Amino acid sequence: MNLEEIVNRRKKFLNETDLMILKFILNHREQMRHISIHDLAKKCCVSSTTIVRFAQKLGFDGFADLKSLLKREYPAENFHSQDILLSLEKFYSKTWANLTKRNYDNASRLVHEANRIFAFASGYVQSNVVRELKRLFFYDNVLIYDIGGKDEFYSVLKTATKDDLFIFVSLSGESHHVTDFSQQLQLKGIPLISITTLHENTLASRSTENLYIFSEEFQINSPEQIPFKSMFTYFLLIEIWYVNYRIYVKNQNSQEKF
User: Fold this and answer.
1) To 5 degrees, how large is the angle CA 65–CA 1–CA 218?
2) For residues 32 and 14, what is the distance between their CA atoms, to the nearest angstrom?
3) Which one of 63, 85, 122, 131 has the fewest beta carbons within 10 angstroms of its own beta carbon?
4) pLDDT number for residue 143
């Protein structure tokens, strides 16, 4: 689990000072690999004790453990080169390796145990992802209902319970609808799975379970042209999740026989 995932899970424990420290860390990741706790405290205008408490709020024993994590996190690869196909191959290979080693059991359990499942997409590509998600899970008699907008969401919310499940697909996790809707679900204690790009975001911090994708831009021709942005990882993620869901259900059924 990397720093962004940890932050999204534990953001509710952070105060304004913690968020200021976090912002410095995220903006100076390479520098953080070598910085001392005293230098970090000085740059953030806080005490060393405050840095230790910040690290503990994230679930670390202390600053040393946080720093060890940052040392293990290498800077993102530069996928851009003159050979655009080679760049895509590297990007897809790294994404595949990352997505296949993740654990999908919690997300699969939420789907398997849900009474009803609702999905909301925050954009055009995300809507296509939801359609594909519905198609895949339909093979297992899992019905996923679309939520078209604000009015429909609040209509569904009136009868939604903790036995239901919502799935939100968003790029940034910060659009008005997903932040508003996720807050309402959090207040009612209704399970929510978010699918967003891997970074600190409001939607992920309010979700029961987070599934992350990687997004990358590729400059195909001249710099003056709009870069090509790969969204393939959305679809790769949900296919890998679906396969893991089938495995999860099979294992659950096998356990119930004994």
Assistant:
1) 120
2) 19
3) 85
4) 96
Q: Which residue ranges form the domains of the chain, and what is each CATH number?
A: 3-72 (1.10.10.10), 84-256 (3.40.50.10490)
A 10 A CB-CB count for 223 gives: 6
Distance CA 155, CA 181 (A): 12
Contact 122, 178 (CB under 8 A): yes
CB 8 within 8 A of CB 205: yes
Q: For residues 82-105, b (16+ Cβ closer than 10 Å) or e, as one string?
A: eeeeebbebbbeebeebbeeeebe
CA 156 from centroid of its chain's CA atoms: 24
Average pLDDT over residues 22-39: 84
pTM greater than 0.85 (yes/no): no
- Please give the DSSP secondary-structure letter assigned to residue 82: S
Q: How much is the pLDDT for 73? A: 67
Helix, strand, coil: what percent of the chain each, to 5? 55, 10, 30
Strands 165-169 and 228-230: unpaired
Query: Which residues touch 154 (CB under 8 Å, ≥6 apart)?
Result: 184
